Amino acid sequence: MNRSLSFKVVLLGEGSVGKASFKTKKLTFDGKRVELAIWDTAGQERFRALGPLYYRDSNGAILVFDITDEDSFERVKSWTKELRRMLGNDCILCIVGNKIDLEKDRHVSMQLAEEYAKSVGAKLYHTSAKLDKGVEELFNDLAQRMLERSPGTTVGGGTANNQNRSSTGTRGGITIAQSATGQNDNGRSSGSCCS
Amino acid sequence: LWITFVNEACQILNIDSSRKQHYEQLTTRQDIELASEIFITGNVYTKNWPAILTHTEIKDDQLCQEIVKYRRKTAILSSTAASTKVDNNTQALAELKKLDYLKSSHEKATCIRTTLDLLLATMMQQQQQLCGSGITVKYTKNQQPIAADETLTSFIDLLTQSDMKNIVAHEYYIITFKFLHLPQDIDYAVTTFRASIEYLYEKKFLSL
Q: What Gene Ontology molecular function terms does this protein carry (chain B) (predicted)?
């Protein structure tokens, strides 16, 4: 039976970047199928206290800020602290500077973002959800990093654990039975989360 | 008991019971675990449920009070929106109310997932109507995703429109009596349900 690994990824950012509430994204690396369950979280201040309900058991987190908005970068900093407090260092963090199509209006310097990401053990990505730039690379890289971190799994022909459910609840990523539905198997995604 | 279990399990999992030895079709461990959950919790539900209602009574009463306050607050903010929303959410509301008749954690969780789907479908429809009417909205393409902020807000509205008295009891039951990890899509819907309860219970709407 074909099996695939499933990871839970939380998405933190403002509502206007084109995120979907819940989306799965299927990828393939060296014949190993990876399914990302992407959980969008409500970014408004009034919903802030509800975040931990969504973060629990996440394997990865995507923290999005708007490069033209300094406040959004500050919010990423506070989310990072909260995630590290809640999930420790096991969770893979991706800090994403979005709206690179508005480079001329940039208010968060690339160097500052880069240094911050490095200081918290995260990786910085640059995207334009509007132009669909950098989004695929972000998910591919995140999936690869989670695969490398997943116990008992190595990219390029490793083993997988034996749970058989498309669900969350374990931090190492879990193996799921391959669904019967057709899926893009050309090595890249068959669905999209951000647009 | 085994025969009863197999027959009921096949019904639960939509397996054709006219075939011989249909227990062989309970092929995966997950199928058997799921069938077990529904069978066992279903059979003790009439004993468990009253105890849970008693256990969550205070929190449920408090939640009802907060819902009244929320309704008042949102009615002040928008006098017409509430009735419009109820009309639009009829299907989702009907689905949510099925929680009262379902006897297992998995069935209740799936019901919440379906409720969320119906709610999202209504929201998408409204978004398209706005696009069609020429009113500018933030998304210009068809079938744009609905962000979590909007989803959560709508789910909170839905809960407050439901007039259900045992919302906390249902939440408690789903969390306590699940045998399996929920599939991620269902887990997301249940989390949205729990977040909505938490939001109302913690009076976060008072800052609106």
A: guanyl-nucleotide exchange factor activity; SNARE binding
